[in-house]
Amino acid sequence: MAPHFTIAQASALIAAKKLSPVELTQICLDRTAKLDPQINAFILHTPERALADARAAEARVMAGRARGPLDGIPIAHKDIYCTKGLPTTAHSKLLQDHIPDTDARTVTMLDDAGTVMLGKLSTHEFAMGGPSFDLPWPPARNPWNPEYGPSGSSSGTGAGVAAGLFLGGTGSDTGGSIRGPAAFCGIAGIKPTYGLCSRMGILPLSFTLDHAGPLAWTAEDCAMLLQAMAGHDPADPASANRPVPNFRSDLHKGAKGLRIGVIRNFHETDNPANPAVCAAIDDAIAFYKSEGAIISDVVLPSLEDYRAAGFLILITEAFAVHEPWLRTRYNDYGELLRDRLALGGLTSAADYIQATRRRRELCLQTAEAMEPVDLLLTTASPTEAPKIEGIPKWSSMEKPGYTMPFNLTGLPAISVCAGYGAAGLPLSIQLVGKAFQEQTIFRAAHAYETATAWRDRRPPMAS
């Protein structure tokens, strides 16, 4: 099979005129034709658009007018990102024929950076209902083993990047929907600081928890994509009006001197991780110690506290978004999303207000605990990916997850591959930074990725 490239590798080769954007795009299209029937990463393929984008990028590069390091890089968009003239369905019957008049702000920004758009990607229905088997399109599957799930809701992005169908893609994260697929698919995915990336033109789920961000094979690739996606947007009321730093500025500084706090209560007591995940966390701690990082234990409030406030806010805000359709087109939703949304209609104003008050307390407690450190270290999931068949409807209510705390607080967090379990499925660590300190996260993640062999291993089907 054709070689795999990271975004950084492909960018350097394109700049040196040793790799044609058209050639790279054709590699991705050929791999998609061969592998996507097994993993269902795409809802919509756009090969003609992709080749047109690639030819335009190649012409710019050859004329010395390249737009930057992403010019000619093949990507794809989660199908809640609006795309002008192309269907944006949210993987739902309700929007099966929805064709937006405008692009999402981040889609425009990535287009302006010269990326090549290969299509629209599977998601959990409206980024909340999945994996579902009663929708117009099948759910995405995990390329490491298609019997297993890729997590969600940025499921197609995670699966497609891991299989090498494209080099990077967009995702959204309301309770872990970037970091979950990154963890289960063995790639990198960052939920940036709340407000760093515009959500204008991205179909909403929860107004105060939604984040937009990229997924890619490496942390460096995520930094390159985030560089093009970040920036103030007056059309998004939550958008942060601040300069965008160079996210790769600290990439090669190594881990020496970083102060890393390990949240042991998360994976040891609040929701005990399995032995393979615990071993991966311990190995990561040992690596950072060996590199001269300063390791300490940090105790955060219980995962249950974050989950209780976060879940109540999420379902209440999601119900507010979907209430008109729930009243008129209830049965057009898939069963999973329909029932999850309906739960939000049973919450009271008092419940919601108390959850937002508790959120504020948790934000203050988290900030206080992080004062002595630069980063927090935990995992994104207590286990490897589960079988895709039979995932419980209320699985998010059974045990608290490791990702919601950082949606609730709005802090930046990345999941990167940390090895493989006995069945060959990926493991993860999650690194969390202070607000708008993405450079520090990328520095720590890059140091770990380049010191381990995990990035050299691809899913068997894509090898």
Walk me through the structure.
It is a single chain. The chain is α/β, with parallel strands linked by helices and 463 residues long. The protein has a single domain, classed as Amidase signature (AS) domain (Amidase signature (AS) enzymes), CATH 3.90.1300. The chain has 15 helices and 11 strands. It has helices at residues 7-15, 21-39, 47-62, 105-112, 155-163, 179-185, 219-229, 264-270, 275-290, 303-328, 335-344, 349-370, 395-398, 404-408, 438-451, and strands at residues 42-45, 74-78, 116-121, 168-173, 188-191, 211-216, 259-262, 294-297, 375-378, 413-420, 426-433. The protein has an 11-stranded mixed beta sheet with strand order 1-3-2-4-6-5-10-11-9-7-8, sandwiched between helices. α4 links the parallel β2 and β3. It is globular. The mean pLDDT is 97.
Q: Strand fraction band? A: 5-15%
Q: Please, what is the oligomeric state?
A: single chain
Q: What are the segments in which pLDDT stays under 50 over at least 5 consecutive residues? A: none
CATH topology category name: Amidase signature (AS) enzymes
What share of residues is helical?
A: 25-40%
The tally of structural domains comes to: 1
Series of H and E elements: HHEHEHEHEHEEHEHHEHHHEHHEEH
Structural class: alpha/beta
Q: Please state the CA-atom Rg, rounded to the nearest Å.
A: 20 Å
CATH architecture: Alpha-Beta Complex
Could you say which overall geometry the principal axes of the C-alpha atoms support? globular
Ends apart, CA distance between termini: 7 Å
Report the total helices: 15
CATH superfamily: Amidase signature (AS) domain
| Mean pLDDT across every amino acid position | 97
Widest sheet: strand order? 1-3-2-4-6-5-10-11-9-7-8
The beta-strand count equals: 11
What is the top-level CATH class? Answer: Alpha Beta
